[in-house]
Design goal:
The chain is mainly alpha-helical. The protein has 5 helices and no strands. Helix 2 runs antiparallel to helix 3, helix 2 packs antiparallel against helix 4 and helix 3 packs antiparallel against helix 5.
Amino acid sequence: MDTLNADGTWDRLGSIALLRHQAATQVWSDADRAAADSPLHDLGLGVYLAHSQASALLPEDYELPDVEVDELEEPTPLQLLTEAEELTRPLPLHRPDLHGSQLVVDLCDLIREARGLGY
């Protein structure tokens, strides 16, 4: 049995990817309603790239799980990113093949940027 699968790492990464996808979709929706020079476009691109980064770490045949986000009716992108960051905490960051530390750093940067934009 795959050790990463046995300890839930793939499910965690899958949940992180899904939360990032949901956040990117919301930010892009907000950016579409904003001015062309809105910083939301940059945040949307950053979240989308972070989603791709997390998805690329998953096995090719992996199916994304459904994610329940702490019973929030409509979570904001900041709440989704924060939930994703919390899911990274038990990841084996010492594994170079997971690039986990970069995953966490990128999430923290996106959270800081979202807060700065008032999310």
